[in-house]
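#struct-help
A.M.: can someone run this one for me? Single chain, 388 residues.
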Amino acid sequence: MVNWSEIPEEIIRKIAMEHLESLEDFDAFGLVCSSWRNSIKDINNFCPYKNTQLPWLMLADPPNNSHRRLYSLSKHMFRNINLPEHHDDRWMFFASKGWLISSSLSNKNITLFDPFSNKVIKLPNILPKVLHFDEIELVDEVTSLFVYYKFIISSRPSSSGDDFAVATMFDKTQRLAFWRPGHAEWSIPDAHFFINQVFDVCYFKEEFYAIDLYGKVMAFGSEVMKRQPRVVVDVSLRSDDLDSHLDVIPYLVEVENTLLVILRKIYMGDVGEEDEDKYYTDSFDILQLNVNDGKFKQVKGVGEHAIFLGFNSTFSVDASSYKHGCKADCIYFTDVYIETFRSTSVCNGGSDMGIYSLKERKVIERFYEGPSQFCDITPPLWVERPHF
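D.P.: on it. Structure tokens below:
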């Protein structure tokens, strides 16, 4: 009978380096025995170039739980992660560059948390910078949800933790704020004369780019407060011929060193009608931007790539690098319509999720229909694979 714990560590590490390709593989490998688990506990040492980890879907577990579950698209299994701290509080979660960003619904504290290394970075509270909030009683959860809409990290923080920047969309008007390590407070650029209600932000070629409600794209330099943002292009989303039942949500994403605008068209039921609470993603359009001359053109697809969007920062992956579980030329989307699903009596949000084929021009399947799908605080969102 083989005593697995007596196998030399160098052999265990060699097997892991040559044959394991995802965190699920490492999890299963470590279950053999404690010595195997200890031999591979530092995953950063194991072939990062072979990392074929698909993004996870973070489920909408009860808000006051001390853990969250990540669902694997390829393995159809769950991975539990413990949160860095737990209080009698409710947290709203976002994700960017493989990190989770949590905002307390009672005191608005902001925490960056790496679920794979358990590293924690505390960010300053943005509210002292915003006089507008002095007039609002932040005790109502509906009001609390309007404080932050999304967080975008410029790059995955390294071990030194000082080589990245963070952008957030906050307030009911969805203004922009930026923060860098070492700064005591957030920087809020005076850009409201140029851009309205920001819907998404992308870090592209050493600059943050933002797109607003009407399709105007602006670029913010690396020194956000020292220079005026520049208008890149206005794609005019709110055209007169747009179907009155369709609402358009724009996203920005980098694909192969090109900045794309993703236009998500959501069908909305008529107010007062029987289907008032019904909404679903109808279609997507894609525009390719030239950030140098402001020109743009419509494109039909993204080739071998797949795009993931939701409450996370929008990102793309090369689907061809995965053996299975990722469909090329598709958009994986999760529910983001807070205003509607908080008032929906049927399912409390989370139902508008699926995979949209850009080639077939339709939603081709659902990727998850299990428990912890519906939540009015933090619906399911995508967590990128770690980039070591």
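A.M.: thanks! Confidence is low (pLDDT under 50) at residues 44-50, 133-139.
D.P.: also worth noting: Residues 52-383 form a domain with the Neuraminidase fold (CATH 2.120.10).
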